[in-house]
Amino acid sequence: AQTVTQSQPEMSVQEAETVTLSCTYDTSESNYYLFWYKQPPSRQMILVIRQEAYKQQNATENRFSVNFQKAAKSFSLKISDSQLGDTAMYFCAFMLGRDDKIIFGKGTRLHILP
Amino acid sequence: DGGITQSPKYLFRKEGQNVTLSCEQNLNHDAMYWYRQDPGQGLRLIYYSQIVNDFQKGDIAEGYSVSREKKESFPLTVTSAQKNPTAFYLCASSNTWTGTDYGYTFGSGTRLTVV
């Protein structure tokens, strides 16, 4: 069975700094999909970034980028020039196929300090 | 605009009552999902449905029931058999076909409290 592990329950950084959130996963499959979702205090889940495992190039979305290390089964999220609005719970997630369910990690609570 | 609507936003249940949480989507997505969120637990899958009139149990289905009579709708009933129903419930849908739009779209959630 696939699992997702986020080893940092909580983090705090100063505004404008760069922060990296860690995520590791376990699977024996070679193709799959990985995600980072953000849940701000409103509790609305928002897709931050996604990556297909067969694509070696790391995904980027504006200030958000990932470091996808397939052999190490690692999928970290880097937030550059962090902003107060980035304060949220961040969930790393794994999906085996497009018609499959998503498995979520337990989340990292990120605080951006003014 | 397309999206997922969950209602109500807040729901209170008395001991022994069944309650139903609504989830409606107009994204033409085939698959729909229900998750439960508790502090420190992440999101745990309750039930999911990949096609109308069919659904599967997730990891914590006991005490819950669902139906999928229409593509757009996937209501969740929390029965009296669910011993600890107080939680935040999230509904999601996904496009299971080709294209770059993979992953879930989420509703805004329902906070259920037992009183």
Description:
- The complex is a heterodimer of chains A (about 110) and B (about 120).
- Chain A is an all-beta fold.
- Chain A has no helices and twelve strands.
- In chain B, strands 2, 4, 5, 6, 9, 10 and 11 form a seven-stranded mixed beta sheet that branches. A four-stranded antiparallel beta sheet of chain B has the order 1-3-8-7, with no helix packed on it.
- Chain B is globular.
- The interface between A and B is medium-sized, with 21 and 27 residues.
List keywords for this structure.
A: 114 residues, six-stranded mixed sheet, four-stranded antiparallel sheet, B: 115 residues, mainly beta, 51% strand
In short:
With 114 residues, chain A is an all-beta fold. Chain A has no helices and 12 strands. In chain A, β10 and β11 (102-104) form a beta hairpin.
Percent of residues in beta strands of chain B: over 45%
- Count the helices of chain B. How many? 0
Structural class, from helix and strand content of chain A? mainly beta
- Element string of chain B (H = helix, E = strand): EEEEEEEEEEE
Low-confidence stretches of chain A: none
Task: Count every beta strand of chain B, where a strand is a DSSP E run of 2 or more residues.
Answer: 11
**What is the percentage of strand-forming residues of chain A?**
over 45%
Q: Could you give the count of β-strands of chain A?
A: 12
- The separation of the N and C termini of chain A measures 41 Å
Shape of chain B: globular
Helical residue percent band of chain B: under 10%
Based on secondary structure, the structural category of chain B is mainly beta
The rounded Rg of chain A comes to 14 Å
Radius of gyration of chain B: 14 Å
Main beta sheet of chain B = 7 strands, mixed
Mean pLDDT of chain A equals: 95
Q: Label the overall shape of chain A.
A: globular
This entry's quaternary arrangement is heterodimer
The ordered H/E elements of chain A are EEEEEEEEEEEE
Main beta-sheet strand count, sense and barrel state of chain A: 6 strands, mixed
